[in-house]
Amino acid sequence: MAKLVQAQGNNKCFNAVQDRIAWNEAGNTSWSPANINNLCKGAENSVEPGRCFETVMQRRVSHGEGYQWSWSEATELCRGTRNSAETISCFKKKIGQGVSFARARAACQWKKHSTNALKAASGTNDISASGRTSSRWGINPYSPIKSQVQITAIGYARQ
Asked: How much of the chain is helix, strand and coil, in % rounded to 5?
């Protein structure tokens, strides 16, 4: 079970979000520690998840049917990102290509093993013929969710 982030001491992401970034349109900046933990998961030492979340919630990003996002949708897109501009750019590009909201969000979410998957894919056959990732990364290649690894121009892998 994941440990909830409650101490602000050395958690850069937590400190950048709590009492600083509104999680709703009313401007509430007091977050539940569990929700911050969810947003910051995998990027506890980065301010990027908060930057991404704030940009999305300030109606700067269309989801294909408007600019108003729920906090949970914004959290799903921005969770653990280490590059908010890249995550948002990816999402905007996918929406512009006519990709559904759910698929665009899934394609552009930051993945924990992104740099490791890139290294492995460049030297070994860790990407199956179906385009799904190897179970080596703890992902079931036979899952009903069809995720693909894409290697972008700047060298990150996304699922």
From this structure: 45, 5, 55
Q: Tell me, yes or no, whether 29 and 76 share the same domain.
A: yes
User: 59 and 1 in one domain?
Assistant: yes
**Distance, CA of 97 to CA of 138 (rounded, Å):** 30
Domain containing residue 156: 111-159
pTM, 2 dp: 0.66
Q: What is the mean pLDDT of residues 10-34?
A: 94
Digit-coded pLDDT (tens) for 97-112: 999 999 999 999 986 4
Task: In whole angstroms, give the CA distance from residue 109 to residue 56.
Answer: 13
For CA atoms 105, 107, 108, 109, the dihedral sign is positive
Judge if 96 and 144 occupy the same domain: no
DSSP state of 133: B
Domain match, 76 and 154 both: no
Please report which confidence band the pLDDT of residue 129 belongs to, taking 50, 70 and 90 as the band edges: very low
Contact in structure between 105 and 73 (CB atoms under 8 Å): yes
Question: Are 134 and 93 within one domain?
Answer: no
